[in-house]
Write a structure and sequence with these properties.
By secondary structure, this protein is an alpha/beta fold. It is built from six helices and 13 strands. It has a single domain, classed as Stationary-phase Survival Protein Sure Homolog, Chain: A (3-Layer(aba) Sandwich). Helix 1 packs across helix 4 and helix 2 packs parallel to helix 3. Bound molecules: manganese (II) ion. The site of manganese (II) ion has 7 residues, from strand 5.
Length: about 260
């Protein structure tokens, strides 16, 4: 409860779809600290990044007073939740718990992280949380930590334009070794494109391959979860590379080809 005795409003979304186990665990856990509303995609939307549906109408299903599914992306869900579905602005957004890691360079593909980006753009303190396993995910530790970090974010707020990306090892809670504030790791790119032929004789392609490998680096998110620690990476929406501004300004850039 906040001081004016209005309950804390917590908006939850994800990219694995409204029926995902990770979202269910998250809801159960954070219900202890506030009034929870879920606005989540109807279907699996992993890898949808920051996509916004512009060419089609969005249909919603009101499952109950506090649960809405949207036939769109995680970003659509956050935008709808913030611009019309509710009377009062939420106090906090949590996106997850994602089934699978969102580490290093891979966060640019992530629908889970994109939803938290969208929340941040709309002025809402936002957290993305994932379980760092490519196989079976254990959600207990992540759900418990979601409550811990949600409380801290509600207490301290977040700097403008900053969100938190959390990755939790897929371990029983008593085997988690601690929490580390980290930076994004660097991925070694070796995606494999598999080409096959469909029953009608047309080629199709499948992006796949082995789980990614990472450059070793101290204080990275990847290193933390590898060592059994929960990783918390602050991300900022300002993607400007300030170090390069002067360098690029020194190039010969002119609006037209024949300008001197
Ligand atoms: Mn996902």
């Amino acid at each position: 409860m906040s001081q004016d005795s209005k309950p804390t409003l917590i908006l939850l979304t994800n990219d694995d779809g409204i029926n995902a186990e990770g979202l269910r665990s998250l809801r159960e856990a954070v219900s202890r600290i506030g009034e929870v509303t879920v606005v989540a995609p109807e279907r699996q939307q992993s890898g949808s990044s920051h996509a916004l549906t512009l060419s089609d109408p969005l249909r919603i299903s009101r499952i109950d007073e506090h649960t809405i599914s949207v036939d769109g992306t995680p970003t659509d869900c956050v935008l709808l939740a913030m611009r019309g579905l509710f009377e009062r602005k939420p106090d906090l957004l949590i996106s997850g718990i994602n089934h699978g890691p969102n580490l290093g360079d891979d966060i640019t593909y992530s629908g889970t992280v994109a939803a938290a980006f969208e929340g941040t753009l709309l002025g809402l303190p936002s957290i993305a949380i994932s379980v760092s396993s490519w196989k079976e995910c254990r959600f207990e530790a992540a759900a418990e930590f979601a409550v811990v970090i949600a409380r801290e974010v509600l207490r301290h707020g977040l700097p403008q334009g900053t969100l938190l990306n959390v990755n939790v090892p897929s371990l029983p809670p008593d085997r988690i070794k601690g929490v580390k504030v980290t930076k994004l790791g660097k991925r070694v790119y070796r995606d494999v494109i598999v080409r096959k032929t469909d029953p009608r004789g047309r080629d199709y392609y499948w992006i796949g391959g082995e789980p990614p490998i990472w450059c070793s680096g101290e204080d990275t998110d990847f290193e933390a979860v590898e060592n059994g620690l929960i990783s918390v990476t602050p991300l900022h929406l300002d993607l400007t590379d300030y170090k390069s501004i002067e360098k690029i300004r020194a190039w010969n850039l002119k609006p037209r080809l024949n300008d001197a």
